[in-house]
Predict the 3D structure of the following.
Amino acid sequence: MTDAVSYPSHEDDVTLTPIGRISSDYPDKFGVPRQPGLVPAGRAVLHLLPPFDDPQTVRGLERISHLWLTFIFHRSPKRWTPLVRPPRLGGNAKLGVFATRSTHRPNRLGLSLVELERIETTSGVRLYLRGHDLIDGTPVLDIKPYLPWAESRPDAQAGFAPDAPASHPVVFSPEAEATLAQRDDSDSLHELIIQVLGQDPRPAYHGDTPTRVYGVFLRDVNVRFRAVVEAGNNTIMKVLEITRYQK
Amino acid sequence: MTDAVSYPSHEDDVTLTPIGRISSDYPDKFGVPRQPGLVPAGRAVLHLLPPFDDPQTVRGLERISHLWLTFIFHRSPKRWTPLVRPPRLGGNAKLGVFATRSTHRPNRLGLSLVELERIETTSGVRLYLRGHDLIDGTPVLDIKPYLPWAESRPDAQAGFAPDAPASHPVVFSPEAEATLAQRDDSDSLHELIIQVLGQDPRPAYHGDTPTRVYGVFLRDVNVRFRAVVEAGNNTIMKVLEITRYQK
């Protein structure tokens, strides 16, 4: 173990090829949960791409319940800055980019722990996932099994993000309820909306626009909502309407 | 969420730049623990490389106890096969490469959970790590804080690798003990040897060469050892001698 370290050159760069691509409940960045486990109802399909779509590549994976996906934040800018403002700190405090899970980071690498629901290998290879945080179209670079005996460390100290963020109540207008009731995926979409809005996806700065209406895209709908501050200073999320949108 | 998926082209390739490089107790592949937590005594230094070596990039990281490192298995071949033989299955059974943590995989991406011992920013940025499984010279692509509330999932099902592998007893010859006693790092090297050999680093196929002497490189020494099968069929690791080697 020496202190010597060689300096970088473009010779050290590595070129990687996506092994798969995500089809997701999240067509857009806004509304994507800030960590995968926060929205268990979030669903995605990972389609393996040739030449990685040989069913042999996933033999034995059916005995694995949780997977690591390494992917590219393909909708994030390539530029990065040494300091970022994590939403968990209200957008006020700056932390080093490597002390956060920010999507604006060198190499734009993402890492998510997801649940594997089932595998289909009849036509190519498709992994059905739950509890993810991946935008539609995300290129995936690797899949690894989660190893609980090595990677479950409940006593680890996580600094500014020691616990899961609290969830807010979500209520629906009669119009939104009526739209939901007409859909085949009524129950699962209802659950998804509650979990996504419960995390308060609004940007950190919103103190001056309390009545603003936001729209979050989930599956094929635009969920228009507003945050309402109630007595006791509790914030609830109110779904105003749910409309179809065209990708 | 559609079933359509676009086919890959080289346009989808991504070029990534190492943000740091590892100096490690492990100069060579042979002997590296098969998961990072198995050898807590294993030490490494991650040197950030320019332009990522701005101390601001790690501001706040001192409050984080465990880090994810995403890196390249730079000593593994670039070729890969859909099926691999994990050492945990004795080298006999084949599993899909994405169902394993094999180092011979598409994109050669590694993922390790390591302990952060301390940070030095007086001259560049150095992260002092413990409990790692990284070979000297490993290029690191990303550093992320471990989030126990999201990533500690003790109930996950891990198929063929549900538990940590058992550890074997390690004994030292008088010659090896004498060599160790003369070193400044006597205690920590002793601990490292016990943890590394306890994992039985021999290749899976060794049934026909029970008396073979192996050498594992740790720090600046070659640790020559043999596996001895005792009464009751227990295997102990016997350190025969410890010699200096030149890189």
